[in-house]
Amino acid sequence: MNAEKRHAIFTRLQKENPHPTTELEYKTPFELLIAVLLSAQATDVSVNKATRLLYAVANTPEAIYALGVDGLIPYIQTIGLFRTKAKNVIATCHLLMTEHHSEVPRSREALEALPGVGRKTANVVMNTAFGEPTIAVDTHIFRVSNRTGIAPGKNVDIVEQKLMKFVPKEFRQDAHHWLILHGRYTCIARKPKCWNCMIADLCEYKQKTPLPDKV
Questions:
Q1: Who is most buried in 47, 58, 147, 154, counting CB within 10 A?
Q2: Rounded to two decimals, what is the model's pTM?
Q3: Is 169 a catalytic residue?
Q4: Where does the chain have alpha helices with state H?
Q5: What three-state secondary structure class fits 39?
Q6: Does 120 qualify as catalytic in the annotation?
Q7: Residue 203 known to bind ligand
């Protein structure tokens, strides 16, 4: 895909949604961090249901740490991998309290040193909480980048590198959210809704899905 096509794609995505953001519900960088940590292999809807209850009771490192693993589990047990996530959340809260004055660090190195926080989570927090032009590559972004030809790659690291190189600078801050939403609602995994896609004429996916027959 050439630069002109990429620019046209992001121009359309921006026009359709000028101020995209995460669908995770949060009010502070700490709430966002915990929500993203919980969202691995889980839907934003399920995480939001859990955090609404949790944050009403505890929404600071001190308050969640005071719950302990056993006290946290009842709030998040509807989310996949909840036992491991509970341990990571409590350990992360402890590190934030002891090493970061209960504040979410802004650097990638410090974020990735927190239990359960990998590169993708760090990218989301840096972008959404702190306004850094990072691009977190999840399954949706990986699929859209490869299928459309925007930034094809064999793994998430290669796709991230290509997106950071190829996405025009003026779109880089919001590219993460546009691509996730596009993959979540239009360029879905099994049968992409090509017939209802605003960038179908620019996309390089050859087996486009036709308009389904009306029943």
A1: 47
A2: 0.89
A3: no
A4: 3-16, 29-38, 44-57, 61-76, 82-99, 108-112, 119-128, 139-148, 156-166, 172-185
A5: coil
A6: yes
A7: yes
